[in-house]
Task: inverse folding
């Protein structure tokens, strides 16, 4: 009988005839258990709300960081701002046609916006030079994909983005930089961005 009662959902069991003192003690014990369960439930709800608030704060900080990086790029080279926006727009249109999922699209969007972030480390005199670059200057310019990866990689949310940024000047035939990747060694997102980047460079005045 006792086992059946507990299996049916009873929290406790007392047999007849029962002692009133024992009954009161059991009731007080059950009330304490209920109070503890209620407090734990409330604490769990508060924890979920705190976690949600923390995630929202982190996301807000993350977005602010991205905006700061983009602003830093803009300050170095006026051309880059419009170029990055156009590359982002074109790259996303291509990726959507290729049925990229939401995460892949978001990574591509961030990588496209930040693909020239490594140019922060390049002197403005070189970035804005109207004449042809010297061999030394061009070598320095070619460092910006790797520098961009170094800037972004420490941020956990941008690890995949940093890989795309590093590879956006690789070429299908292996003549690109910095790693001379070729064919399928190059991430698909980086190939798309390279196409959008090259197209915009050829069709825009600087």
Result:
């Amino acid at each position: 009988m006792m086992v059946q009662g507990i299996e049916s959902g009873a929290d406790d069991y007392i047999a007849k005839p029962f002692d009133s003192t024992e009954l009161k003690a059991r009731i007080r014990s059950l009330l304490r258990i209920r109070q503890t369960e209620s407090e734990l439930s409330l604490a769990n709800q508060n924890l979920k709300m705190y976690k949600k608030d923390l995630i929202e704060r982190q996301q807000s900080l993350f977005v602010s960081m991205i905006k700061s990086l983009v602003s830093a790029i803009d300050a170095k080279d006026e051309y880059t701002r419009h170029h990055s926006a156009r590359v982002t727009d074109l790259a996303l249109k291509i990726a959507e046609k290729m049925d990229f999922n939401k995460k892949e699209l978001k990574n591509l969007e961030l990588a496209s916006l930040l693909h020239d972030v490594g140019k922060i480390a390049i002197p403005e005199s070189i970035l804005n030079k109207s004449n042809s670059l010297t061999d030394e200057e061009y070598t320095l310019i070619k460092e910006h994909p790797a520098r961009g990866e170094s800037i972004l990689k420490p941020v956990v949310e941008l690890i995949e983005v940093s890989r795309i940024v590093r590879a956006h000047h690789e070429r299908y035939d292996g003549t690109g930089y910095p790693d001379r990747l070729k064919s399928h060694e190059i991430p698909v997102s980086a190939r798309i961005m390279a196409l959008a980047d090259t197209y915009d460079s050829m069709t825009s005045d600087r």
Remarks:
- The chain has two domains: 20-76, 78-203.
- The first helix runs from residue 2 to 7.
- Residues 93 and 189 are 12 Å apart (CA to CA).
